[in-house]
Structure to design on (479 residues):
């Protein structure tokens, strides 16, 4: 017989609980190879291409693109032995639309034996008064019977009729499996779990909707249509002359990276006591150095941006002030000082704010660091950042200068003690040897966790970063 294997959504990161199906690379009926990429999933940390753990034929895709599912949920079924002899009657998926076909009419009748009378279903009393108690017997081929469809307009609010104790209840296929029924006030509403979840999140009462799907099923489109055209609860009438506000509003679901970022920032802001200090520096010597090193053979083909020099200055300052490269262990009540630097770079992407990090950045040369930052930024923009690159960061730089912004008061990346903000480099008047001249000036700011970093340590660290950028020769002495 065929062997059907369910592939469940795995934990694609450290303790992730859910993911959104972005796109499928296969369709039902396609043949897949072992480790072939079959789906792209967006988690709270990154978009990940997931390979198939099975080789065979795709028999069912359980989750449509755009749906968020919990880790451990079956997302695809693969027949790993498609050449095997198939049953005469293929299994009917209870979640498929079967109209009003009666499920009990499709169940094969078992033969007469010790389990019960011939022709009796499980729980059904046969002609001899005995109740069938076992399943798994009977012919493979069955005949399905249809009963007339009920017009959705005839559904009335009423109390459910009592069920006769001696007769088994009959349910339609649309009320089985994933196409579950929602019952409220005596009204039965057919809707799939993702649609019920969406309605709950948007505050839509399913019992007042008329489903446009097969057999009156309420679809996602039905719920979204209500959300688009309803600015106030349905029970509150809109006064004449009041504009339809909903048509001028756009609701963006908070999920994936944005959901994770929001939770992380709230946790950080209200857990770590933040302090922010500022420093304005003359960065002209560094900008001149950048022009010279850009032409060196060691940096051929690599973009050398001002951020590279800021990163190098930060790494040198960390070596002189290791306490800023730390974390707070709440459970142990200890400060954990890291002897390595995984340098995080905050990157704005279409999917939201990502903070991938360069592992062991303190061990890299200037050329290696420049290449690593270039690769990191390119990967983040393309949405290919691996989950491993999003974890383990020890200190972060956020470059608001790329947007023309002078400065900011950044929130700490959770689990880190400091974050450096690098503003725009501008031509500004500056006093040099008593004379006002035009120089390349920038502003730096440092936010730090005051449980770990006191004012002296934070000030020394920020001053050291500024000193290297104001006079790059300092790096030769400190390096």
């Amino acid at each position: 017989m065929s062997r059907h294997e369910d592939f469940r959504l795995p934990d694609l990161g450290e303790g992730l609980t859910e993911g959104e199906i972005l796109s499928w690379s296969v369709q039902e009926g396609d043949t897949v190879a072992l480790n072939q990429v079959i789906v792209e999933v967006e988690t709270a940390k990154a978009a990940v291409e997931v390979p198939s753990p099975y080789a065979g034929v795709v028999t069912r895709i359980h989750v449509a693109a755009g749906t968020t599912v919990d880790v451990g949920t079956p997302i695809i079924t693969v027949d790993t032995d498609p050449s095997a002899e198939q049953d005469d009657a293929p299994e009917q998926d209870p979640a498929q639309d079967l109209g009003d076909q009666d499920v009990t009419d499709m169940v094969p009748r078992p033969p007469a034996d010790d389990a019960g009378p011939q022709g009796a279903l499980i729980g059904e009393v046969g002609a001899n008064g005995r109740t069938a108690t076992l399943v798994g017997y009977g012919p493979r081929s069955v005949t399905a019977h249809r009963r007339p469809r009920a017009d959705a307009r005839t559904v009335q609010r009423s109390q459910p009729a009592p069920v006769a104790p001696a007769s088994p209840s009959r349910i339609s296929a649309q009320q089985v499996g994933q196409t579950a029924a929602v019952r409220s006030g005596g009204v039965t509403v057919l809707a799939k779990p993702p649609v019920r979840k969406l309605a709950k999140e948007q505050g839509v009462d399913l019992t007042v909707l008329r489903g446009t799907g097969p057999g009156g099923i309420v679809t996602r489109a039905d719920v979204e249509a209500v959300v688009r055209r309803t600015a106030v609860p349905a029970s509150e009438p809109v006064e004449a002359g009041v504009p339809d506000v909903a048509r001028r509003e756009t609701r963006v679901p908070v999920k994936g990276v944005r959901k994770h970022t929001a939770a992380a920032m709230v946790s950080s802001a209200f857990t770590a006591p933040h302090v922010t200090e500022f420093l304005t520096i003359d960065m002209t010597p560094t900008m001149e150095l950048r022009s010279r090193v850009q032409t060196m053979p060691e940096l051929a083909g690599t973009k050398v941006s001002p951020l590279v020099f800021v990163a190098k200055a930060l790494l040198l300052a960390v070596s002189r002030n290791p306490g800023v490269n730390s974390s707070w262990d709440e459970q142990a009540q200890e400060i954990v000082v890291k002897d390595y630097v995984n340098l995080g770079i905050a990157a704005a992407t279409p999917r939201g704010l990502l903070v991938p990090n360069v592992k062991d950045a303190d061990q890299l040369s200037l050329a290696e660091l420049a290449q690593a930052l270039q690769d990191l930024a390119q990967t983040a923009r393309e949405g290919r950042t691996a989950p491993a690159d999003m974890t383990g960061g020890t200190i972060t730089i956020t470059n608001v200068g790329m947007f023309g912004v002078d400065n900011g008061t950044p929130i700490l990346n959770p689990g880190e003690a400091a974050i450096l903000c690098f503003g725009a480099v501008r031509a500004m008047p500056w006093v040099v040897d008593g004379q006002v001249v035009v120089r390349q000036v920038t502003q730096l700011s440092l936010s730090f966790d005051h449980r770990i970093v006191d004012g002296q340590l934070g000030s020394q660290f920020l001053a050291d970063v500024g000193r290297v950028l104001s006079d790059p020769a300092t790096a030769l002495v400190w390096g």
Observations:
- Residues 152-156+172-248 form a domain with the Dihydrolipoamide Transferase fold (CATH 4.10.320.10).
- Residues 366-381 form the longest helix (16 residues).
- The first strand starts at residue 4 and ends at 8.
